[in-house]
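Entry 14. Two folds queued back to back today. First construct below, sequence then structure tokens.
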Amino acid sequence: MRLQVRLVFVAIAVACASLMAYGIYYLQEELGLEPCPMCVLQRYALISIGAVALIAAIHGPRAWGLKIYSGLIVLFAVLGGGVAIRHSYLQHFPPKTESCGSDLGFLMGNLPLSQAIPRIFAGTGSCSSVDWKFLGLTIPEWTLAWFAIFAAAAIWAVVANRPPK
């Protein structure tokens, strides 16, 4: 069973790396789509999931280690999924006033966290615009689907490797 656990974590790490490469090299560089603050937060969640999965794949955890790595992946997937849900909501129900807003670096660098977080989740004109779709789903809807897949795979790794009673 330990090999299966490593394969699950390798698959998650490879998927995260592939999604990041697609987002950066194709969507951003080739198509010119600049990420909004919510997109950046979703990227951070993907990077975090990929890093945890890579470490877990190298470590080959058992028992509590498996639960900790899987728990971290589920946590980051839930956080990223929450951002993706809010982002998708803003795309379906854009704010009445469109503004370009500030980028994530400016908000986090110049405002206290208590003021930056509400502004990020309030959304901007760039967060509500739909510039790309594939099979009818927007970028945050696709990332939400991937976050759900990663969380399900991490939970499966724990459940499938429970010791028999």
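Second construct, same run, same settings:
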Amino acid sequence: MHEMSLCESILKIVQDQAASQKFERVITVYLELGVLSHVTPEAMLFCFDIVTKDSLADGAKLEIHQAPGQAWCLGCEKNVKIEKWGQPCPECTNYNLQITAGDEMKVTELEVE
């Protein structure tokens, strides 16, 4: 389950920010998670609670915003919305798509005390 190591990386980001910005407790971590990222939001929520136990983020809420997938179609030369890998272009049915958004995962905001 790679979500566990991803949550460990999130905790490291939180700890680094706590050291540089001098806060002691995290209330909420806001995470942008692309629909094409191969990461399951439910697994992230489960792993986050385990990884943050006994840390400055213990009891914090992980708020996940799912970002839509987008691609550039090399066939019709349009920017199109896609919902999963391997999907054809919704405009021309070409499979030659270059992903431009929706495969990312990033901490966008921290609510702290």
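Quick look at the second one. The CA atoms of residues 3 and 39 lie 7 Å apart. The helical segments are 2-21, 41-51.
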